[in-house]
Every structure is written in C-alpha cells, then in structure tokens.
Write a structure and sequence with these properties.
The complex is a heterodimer.
Chain A (H helix, E strand, L loop, with lengths): L1 E6 L6 H10 L3 E6 L11 E4 L19 H11 L3 E5 L1 H9 L5 E3 L7 E9 L15 E8 L3 E3 L2 H9 L3 E5 L10 E5 L5 E4 L17 H13 L1
Parallel strand pairs in A: 1-2, 1-3, 3-4, 4-11
Antiparallel strand pairs in A: 5-8, 6-7, 6-9, 9-10, 10-11
Chain B lengths: L1 E8 L6 H12 L11 E7 L6 H12 L5 E9 L4
Antiparallel strand pairs in B: 1-2, 1-3
Classes of the chains: A alpha/beta, B alpha+beta.
Chain lengths: ~220, ~80
C-alpha cells in the first residue's frame, strides 16, 4: 500500500504519522503543501497534526487553501482514502471534506494527555481492527478540539453511522462527545486524538496499531 | 478603498472565550455584564472598484467559517462596485 503524508509549514506530527504507516507495512512518501498534484498511485493520504501556518486566522484555515489541498479534494471525490488527525481534522473540516468545525476547547485550556475513546463504528477501513464499543486509550494534544455541529447535523451523523469515536469523558466540549467522524462513503476519517502516537510501547500505549493495520489490510484488499 | 470585515460566532454557538471574558469582568467588580461575545475584526485595503461579490467570496472562502461564524462587510472609504 502506498501512503502519502502532506507536510504544511508548522506540521509536527508528519513523521510520526509516516512511521505509523510504515510499521503497518505501507510505503510512505512525504508531500510538500506547495505541490499541486498528489502522486497518482497513492492509496491513502494522511493529513498530519501540528500547527499549520501557526494556526493563523483559524486552525487549518490557511492550509485548506494550499495548492495541494485542491488535489486532496479531487482525491476524495474519486473515492480515495484520507485520514486527518488533530490539525489534519481541522484542515478537513475547513475544506468542507468533513462536516462541522473545531472550536476552542470549552475550558479554554490546551489539553495534552492520554484519553479514553469508545469505538462507535467498527465496520470501516479505519476501525475494523477494533470491536464495536471497545475502549481504547490514545493521546490528545489540542487547544481547538471542540467539535461543533448543529443538533440536526448531529442527528444526521448518528443516523448515517458516521461517528467513529466518542470520548468516554468529554475533555473539550465536543458536540455529542464526538472525537472522530467519517465521510459519507466511509473513506475519510477525521479525529482529534492521535492514534499515530500510540503505536510503540515506548509511546506508553499501542492502541493505535490496530487502526493502521486494518487500514493497510482493507485498502490492499479493496 | 478600505473595508472592515467583522466576524462573529453565530447566535447559539457557545463562545467559551466570550464567557471567560464575562466572568473576568465580574471578578473585576463590574456587575451586570450579562453576556460577552468575542469576534474578529479584519481590515482590508482593496483596489478601488473591487466588487461586493468578490468581497463576499473572500469572506465565504477564507475570512469566516460559515459553519460557525457570521460576517458583516463595512465599507470604510471608497466605493464598492
């Protein structure tokens, strides 16, 4: 499987994400945000965490206008796989690829700690390595992770089975305790917690491994 | 021409920063501060004759996230086409 990781000025989880993909068996290329085209043979694109463009204007807003982002949108329109983590999730909502917006945490604090998530969906490429209802522990590290959608949109996301993960103990005020959502076609996942920071015993936990393994397995099989 | 764009969170969207400011004003002894909403002011120097349509597009595409924010366009000097 071929994975590409987009690098924006200010990305800081790009290499962690590359390592997580590599350990799961993917070949990884790094893609600079000024490139206009994604390599044509990519199976999945990772949009990493960090502080793209210093979080100026709004988190992810400037990155959403980068040249590579137009190519990323075309990739999703063709049904390509994308995972956006933390700032990557913010970029995906700013482009409109995923619904909603990430607002300032309700307690106004930067939250950096391992946190418990509940798997709400185990039937997509990202989550098939988990059991429905399973609790996993993955780090969060964000100031703007308060996922915000209208009540109608929340109902729609639930009805369509698009909530991938919820927080067991909501740290940031997210609507419906949502930690991660998928696109309608289940090929794009955005989440605030960092599974790529939980793939080695030295990370303090390995609950992220199953995500990258199941992703590589399902994308290769598809 | 000069244009000022005000960006505010939509009514009904909880504004944690505004709420923190409200509490802080109360702690300073200012009674009766019932609500505070915090937003952004963006000033633009634009070529004369820039169309209102273009300014709206700037707001919709970048300056505001219309999922959670409203914007208002104020022309400070010069004329919009």
């Amino acid at each position: 499987m071929k994975a590409g990781v987009i690098v924006f000025p200010g990305s800081n989880c790009d290499r962690d994400l590359a390592v997580a993909f590599e350990r799961a068996g993917a070949q990884v290329s790094m893609i600079w945000h000024k490139d206009t085209d994604l390599p044509g043979d990519l199976d999945i694109v990772g949009v990493p965490g960090g502080f793209s463009f210093g979080d100026y204007l709004r988190c992810g807003a400037i990155a959403a206008q980068s040249p590579i982002t137009r190519s990323l949108i075309r990739h999703t329109e063709r049904g390509g796989y994308v995972i956006g983590i933390c700032n990557g999730f913010q970029v995906l909502t700013e482009t409109g690829i995923l619904p909603g917006a990430l607002m300032r945490n309700s307690n106004l604090k930067f939250i950096c700690k391992p946190i418990e998530l509940q798997v709400e969906k185990a039937d997509c490429a990202f989550t098939s390595g988990y059991e429905l209802g399973q609790k996993i522990t993955v780090p969060v590290a964000h100031h703007d992770g308060n996922y915000t959608v209208t009540a109608e949109k929340l109902t729609q996301l639930r009805d369509e089975g698009r909530v991938a993960f919820t927080y067991v103990d909501n740290p940031n005020g997210s609507t419906g305790d949502i930690a991660g959502v998928v696109s309608k076609n289940r090929r794009v996942l955005g989440m605030m917690p960092h599974p790529e920071r939980a793939v080695d015993v030295n990370h303090g936990g390995t609950d992220g491994v199953a995500m990258f393994r199941s992703l590589v397995d399902s994308v290769v099989a598809a | 021409m000069k244009v000022r764009v005000d960006v505010m969170l939509k009514t009904g969207v909880l504004d944690p920063q505004g709420e923190a400011v409200r509490r802080a004003l109360g702690n300073l002894g200012f009674d009766g501060v019932e609500a505070v909403r915090q937003g952004k002011v963006i000033e633009l120097d634009l070529a004369d004759g820039t169309s209102e349509d273009d300014i709206k597009k700037m707001c919709e595409k970048l300056l505001a996230n219309t999922v959670i924010e409203n914007y208002t366009i104020n022309v400070l000097s010069g004329e919009v086409q």
